[in-house]
From TrEMBL:
Pfam families linked: Acetyltransf_3
Name of the protein described by the UniProt record: Acyl-CoA N-acyltransferase
Domain N-acetyltransferase residues, every copy: 21-178
Single GO MF annotation: acyltransferase activity, transferring groups other than amino-acyl groups
InterPro entries for this protein: Acyl_CoA_acyltransferase (IPR016181), GNAT_dom (IPR000182), N-acetyltransferase (IPR051531)
Length: 231
């Protein structure tokens, strides 16, 4: 058995999402070497709680938690015009997905930020997430709504982002997310004590007020362990 226990988990079902410029394919352990320029970049990883990955072994551990298991829903982002060129899939320019439902996060390869790729990738991920993850509403025997009772799914997607990371906040807003809370000085990384903004978007047909997921609704904003996963 490997040190990180990754051989105990099977990879998820392979999914491919396509937009005008991008192809998102299910993240795989074989993607590790192509991901290392992202994971070892201080400019990219400065917005995360973990900071840059130091070596390939750490990268494998990081990747195994996002590429293995039936419930992981994470993607490698590639440019569409490179994806089928000479049978090659092209360079991974970013990572996006939900290692823990209902959170979403992404990282972009150095040199690829600010080109609209993150917004484009997130815009096709959102409907795929709600298709993959069941609704929180329980259905009764006759198929009627269970009156809002909580089930095993989720009717929202949320993102945690450093309050100084304005670019990523704009990406979220362009994709329909709403900033619902700011938590001051709630985690520490290489840049010191940081504050976090919480963004949420409701499943189509639902609203954040209806779900009780706006500020002042009395819901726990996020778990103690949650840290900003968005670049």
């Amino acid at each position: 058995m490997s040190a990180d226990g990754s051989d105990l988990l099977a990879p998820p079902k392979s999914v491919t999402l396509i937009s005008a410029r991008l192809v998102l394919s299910t993240l795989q352990m074989s993607d590790l070497l192509d991901l290392m320029p992202i994971l070892t970049s201080s400019d990219v990883m400065q917005w995360t709680s973990s900071g840059p990955i130091a070596n390939e072994q750490q990268g494998r551990t990081w990747l195994s938690s996002r590429a293995l298991g039936t419930d992981v829903f994470n993607f490698a982002i590639r440019e569409r015009h490179e994806y089928n060129r000479d049978g090659e899939r092209g360079t991974i320019i970013g990572i996006l997905g939900s290692p823990d439902w209902p959170e979403v996060g992404y990282l972009m390869r150095p040199g690829y930020a600010g080109k609209g790729f993150a917004t484009e990738a997130l815009s096709i991920f959102i409907p795929a997430f709600f298709e993959r993850v069941p609704s929180a509403l329980v259905s009764t025997v006759d198929g009627a709504s269970g009156g809002g009772a909580q089930g095993v799914g989720y009717d929202y997607l949320e993102a945690l982002v450093d309050v100084e990371n304005i670019g990523s906040q704009r990406v979220l807003e362009k994709c329909g997310f709403t900033k619902v809370l700011v938590s001051e000085n709630d985690f520490e990384n290489s840049m010191g004590l940081r504050s976090t903004a919480l963004f949420r978007i409701a499943r189509p047909g639902r609203t954040l007020p209806e779900l009780g997921l706006l500020v002042g609704d009395g819901v726990v904003p996020w778990s103690e362990e949650a840290k900003p996963p968005i670049q």
